[in-house]
Structure formats: C-alpha cells, structure tokens
Specification:
By secondary structure, the protein is α+β, with helices and mostly antiparallel strands. It has five helices and 18 strands. The chain binds fe (ii) ion.
Length: 340
C-alpha cells in the first residue's frame, strides 16, 4: 500500500550536522583531549587520521582528527535525509554554478559518497552525505543500553551538537540566506550589527528542533573562514560544572564559562583542544522548537550581552578585553566575534 509520504516529494533536505574534520598539529594530544578526557571512542585510525564518536552516536564518527601543519577545519559535514538527496543537492549546486567536488565512498572512512563545496559567502568547506556505517564498539566499551554506542566515560560528551562559524560582515547576509534558501535551515534567533542595522551580527539556524545546528557570526577582523567553535552535548547542566572542575586540574585552558546563554538557554563551557587549539564548547540544556511557524527572535544591541551570558562567567564586551584589542572597522568589540 502506498504511504501518504510517498505521494509528494519534499525535495532534498538536510537531516542534521554530522561531523567535523579538524586539522591538528598534535594528534596525540588531541586524542588525549577528545578520547581520554571528553570520553569519546576512537573508532578507527588510518595513519595520521583518527575517527571518533561520542557515546550516544551509533554511526561511525562525528569527529575526524587529521595530523597536519595547519589547525584549519578540513570539512563541516551534514547528513541528508534521504540517499537521493546527495545527488539532488549536487544538481542544485551545479544549477547555481557552485564548484562542487564528488568525494568517493570510503575517502572518509565509514562514509559513503559525499559532495564538497565552499559555502557561498564564506570560506567554509561543507560536505553533504547520506551513508555512514553503523559501527559496533569493542566488547570492553559496550553499553547495556542499546541507544548508546558505548558506555558513558570521561566528561561524558554524548553527541555532536552544533557548529559556530564566522564569515566577514560584508558576506554574512549572503551566507546566512544561502543556508536557509538552499539547505533549508531555519533562522531561530538573530542580531544585527549595532552600527549596521541591516547586516547580521549573528544568526542561529537549525534543521532540527534544536535552537541551532549551525550558527553564523560576523568576524570582527573581516575574516571569512573562521571556526568559532564546535559544540558537543552533555546530558546535564551540572556536567558543565564537573567538566570545569576536572579540566582546571588537568591544566586545560577554558576561556569562558561555565555559564548560561540567554540565546538558546543552554549551559556553556568553552575549552580549547590542547593539540589543535580549536575551541570546543561543552553544551548542556537549551530549549527545543516544535512550531513549524516559529518566528525568529531578534536580539537588540542593548540586550545582546544578556543573550550571550544570562548568568555565570560573563563574556566581556569592552574593547581590548582579555588582553587583546578586538575592535574592528565596523566598530565591533566583542570577543564572541573573534575566531581563533
Ligand atoms: Fe555554541
């Protein structure tokens, strides 16, 4: 019998943020951080590349660590909703004359064919894929809970949560509109630049009920390809406090937190992977969105500091804070707007 859902074609859609490939100058130190401290499983090692996942991720990986001279992000990967969506997005990118590469199955271990392109309006390498192996953990790591891929360990990160990327103020509107119009992300919360009320300062977008799967923020130095952070999700608000306590003793630096965002209403702790220096947010809580007709929430400049830090360790909004001058030509003076 034909299902109702077979009677229409919604077109290609993104399911969720799937994985990030981080370049690191010291893969052993990065593995110590992500595997031994955060508690992720090293699923596979292929020379200078390691594949990891968190304990509630059943698929092969959400994090790829690549030993290399640069601390760049090699890719942001998003899973599509259906197998045919990869090809359909490829056709759409061709129609828009966006240069797109096909990444053969297995190039990233455990993953099927993907397509790769640069985000219009930003220097961010995006990849779309559907197939990724479901992988069994070795016996010694297995959980009795079938919804866990392994036992909870370390600081207990349970899944990839979101990406926060930066692009320049001159192209952020283009980038944000593109992910909404082509990839189907919905704008959930946003703010305009104080002195440029038609230019986005930040937009939090999602394809899932999460408040954001992808945040796009204007970079104060006009850089268009900066990762601000990748976030991993913790089960409990108190896990962020525990993480702070443990990381302090291990001498792992954290910049801001623990605290709570007004925007998204989640607990945060921003730490740095000591191998790569990439910023990682440990993220817990937050609200979910179920209304299809959700109206995006605008944060006015006067309220924005409260949006970033509702309580806890405040993010300093004064120029030159935290030992560096963060003011740029657009009059921005916020550490949140600075990439690595
Ligand atoms: Fe975040």
């Amino acid at each position: 019998m034909t299902k109702l859902s077979d009677q229409y074609d919604p077109g290609p859609q993104i399911s969720h943020a799937g994985a990030i490939n981080l370049g690191t100058k010291d893969i052993e130190k990065s593995l110590w951080f992500f595997r031994d401290i955060l508690g992720m499983e090293e699923v596979e090692r292929d020379g200078d590349i390691a594949y990891l996942r968190a304990y509630q991720e059943l698929r092969h990986h959400s994090l790829v660590l690549t030993q290399q001279d640069e601390t760049a992000v090699n890719s942001y990967s998003f899973r599509t909703k259906r197998p045919e969506d990869v090809e359909l997005f490829y056709k759409e990118l061709q129609r828009q004359e966006i240069e797109t590469l096909e990444i053969p199955s297995g190039t990233e271990r455990g993953r099927g064919t993907a397509i790769r392109f640069q985000l219009p309006g930003g220097d961010h390498p995006f990849e779309l894929y559907f197939d990724m192996d479901k992988t069994e953990a070795p016996d010694e790591l297995q959980s009795r809970l079938p919804s866990n891929s392994s036992r909870r360990r370390g600081l207990g990160v349970r899944r990839l949560d979101h990406f926060n990327v930066q692009t320049s103020p001159s192209t952020i509107n283009q980038a944000e509109a593109w992910v909404r119009e082509t990839l189907g992300f919905k704008r959930r919360e946003f703010a305009y630049l104080p002195d440029h009320p038609e230019t986005l300062m930040a937009s939090w977008t999602s394809v899932t009920p999460q408040m954001h799967d992808l945040a796009i923020v204007a970079n104060a130095q006009e850089k268009s390809g900066q990762l601000h952070h990748v976030a991993y999700n913790l089960e409990n608000l108190s896990d962020a406090l525990t993480a702070a306590d443990i990381l302090r003793d291990l001498d792992v630096s954290f910049g801001v937190g623990p605290g709570k965002h007004g925007i998204g209403q989640a607990m945060y702790l921003y730490v740095h992977d000591p191998g790569s220096d990439h910023r990682v947010e440990l993220y817990a809580g937050g609200y979910l969105i179920f209304d299809e007709d959700w109206e995006a929430i605008e944060w006015k400049p006067v309220d924005f500091p409260e949006g970033l830090t509702w309580y806890g360790d405040p993010i300093d909004v004064t120029p030159g804070s935290r030992g560096r001058d963060t003011t740029n030509s657009a009059g921005l003076s916020h550490p949140y707007l600075n990439g690595k």
